[in-house]
Design goal:
By secondary structure, this protein is α/β, with parallel strands linked by helices. 45% of the residues lie in helices and 15% in strands. Strands 1, 2, 3, 6, 15 and 16 form a six-stranded mixed beta sheet that branches. A hairpin with a 2-residue loop joins strand 4 and strand 5. The protein is globular and about 65 Å long.
């Protein structure tokens, strides 16, 4: 009898303990929410200086100065001044923030910003209060959402959508493209519409130039850009409904191996520089010199291509007319650049959403939020787009700008932009993937021929998945 009573009391104790724990967790969650509300009271701090961390391109093209000058003029009556943080664009808030060395407001890609959520280095934001809120799509906001103590918060404000684009020299198109390179007679060269035609044209350029010029050139070891070939055939980074299940690595899943074949084929029209970062570094100047016909990169570096064209002796007007950007070409359904019999499919690309976050260590959160609101206004994003070539996350501006800006927003909404998972473990993906892609390219160019069959490529890609899994869960001890 005593034993039964003891068991009953034991069960009651467990239940009470659980109730207490749940109550404490509820209070903590409520405190997190309350703390966020207390931080952003709407009452502007006066006579404060905000340190703003922006990317290098914004500095070099003069946009950051314009933004700071405009904001400072708007908020001069409050004594609020925003200044360049004068830090490297990849400054780690986690390292310097707690000691007062970090910025108040920082601009980076979603995966870079959201890694700070775990250590509470950035603040959950009252984004519904921002002027841009209703004009930004659900998938862009989703890149900055995370769970904290059982509740979902938004930790960043989208500025622009990043996705790879094809850059090419219009004046280097084949002269006979209208008759020989426009099979569907739609008035658009096949070489910029599908990868099979680009592959064939690149072969022709190499052959006709005696190997001194190239068609499509890109560092194939760049995992961010290369991953799109795997994603397009059913591969994925992490599994789960939210794409954040790090125990399910999926580059080799479904028909992802077709992406490996595409990369190996593209390498054959390049040189060994595609196995490392050389092409990424020299693509601006080599395209200006006419050595490369085309490359792939993000929208925000368009002005760098124009600058190099001018440096090469062309007028700015000529450069603007002939450096063209289009959505990435379609891929063959067959997964083989030499087999066009099944037609073509839209390419799914790895992308991201760059935006602003506010440091948890700022002493002026309301002023910082006012800066973010100002920087994401229609007027300032319109200016940012004009100077930097970014594709704004604001749908109202993207619609007015039209063209690729609207296409990129639509690609994000439709899933053709696979947003980099906002989890810290993403950092473990790149080395195994990039090493594998470099090996594929080297294999094709040196004649090692270790990856001549889909079976061999599949085995190699499965090993990539395993390496990523191990680096996250085994080697880290989790």
């Amino acid at each position: 009898m005593k034993r039964n009573i003891a068991v009953v009391f034991s069960h009651v104790a467990v239940v009470l303990a659980l109730i207490i724990v749940m109550g404490v967790l509820g209070l903590i969650a409520a405190n997190v929410s309350a703390a966020a509300k207390e931080k952003f009271t709407g009452e502007l701090e006066r006579n404060v200086t905000l340190r703003i961390l922006e990317n290098d391109t914004a500095k070099e093209q003069g946009y950051l100065k314009e933004l700071l000058d405009a904001f400072n003029a708007e908020y001069a009556e409050y004594g609020i001044k925003a200044v360049d943080a004068n830090m490297d664009q990849y400054t780690d808030l986690e390292t310097g923030g707690p000691f007062g060395y970090g910025p108040d407001v920082l601009y980076q890609a979603n995966d870079a910003l959201m890694k700070y959520v775990d250590g509470k280095h950035i603040l959950p934001l009252p984004v519904e209060e921002l002027d841009c809120y209703e004009f930004i799509g659900e998938k862009a906001w989703a890149a900055y959402k995370a769970q904290a103590m059982g509740q979902e918060y938004t930790f960043g404000v989208p500025v622009n959508i990043q996705q790879p684009l094809l850059y090419y020299r219009a004046d280097l198109l084949p002269e006979n493209w209208r008759t020989e390179w426009d099979d569907d007679k739609n008035g658009v060269p096949d070489v910029i519409e599908n990868w099979s035609a680009m592959y064939r044209y690149s072969q022709q350029i190499r052959r006709d130039s005696g190997g001194s010029k190239y068609g499509y050139m890109k560092s194939l070891n760049d995992g961010y850009f290369a991953s799109g070939y795997f994603l397009s055939y059913g591969g994925y980074v992490f599994g789960g409904e939210d794409g954040k299940d790090t125990k399910d690595i999926g580059f080799s899943k479904n028909d992802g191996v077709n992406g490996a074949r595409i990369i190996r084929q593209l390498a054959t029209v390049m040189n060994l520089e595609c196995t490392e970062d050389t092409i990424t570094r020299n693509s601006y100047s080599r395209m200006a010199q006419g050595t490369y016909f085309a490359t792939m990169t993000t929208p925000d570096v368009y002005t760098l291509f124009i600058k190099e064209m001018v440096n090469a002796g062309y007028t700015e007007e000529y450069a603007l007319e002939n450096i063209k950007t289009v959505d990435v070409p379609k891929l063959p359904v067959s997964g083989d650049l030499e087999d066009e019999s099944q037609g073509f499919k839209d390419m799914t690309v790895m992308g991201g959403v760059n935006g602003y976050a506010i440091s948890s260590y700022t002493k002026a959160p309301n002023a910082a939020l006012a800066f973010v609101n100002f920087a994401t206004s229609y007027k300032m994003l319109e200016r940012r787009s004009a100077l930097l070539g970014i594709s704004p996350a604001r749908s109202d501006l993207a619609e007015v700008l039209g063209g690729l800006n609207q296409t990129i927003n639509e690609n994000l909404a439709s899933g053709l932009v696979y947003v980099m998972p906002s989890v810290r473990a993403l950092g473990q993906v790149w080395t195994p993937l990039q090493t594998y892609c470099a090996r594929l390219a080297d294999d094709a160019l040196t004649g090692k021929n270790a990856f001549t069959t889909l079976e061999a490529m599949k085995k190699g890609l499965e090993n990539v998945d395993k390496q990523i899994y191990d680096s996250i869960h085994t080697l880290s001890g989790s």
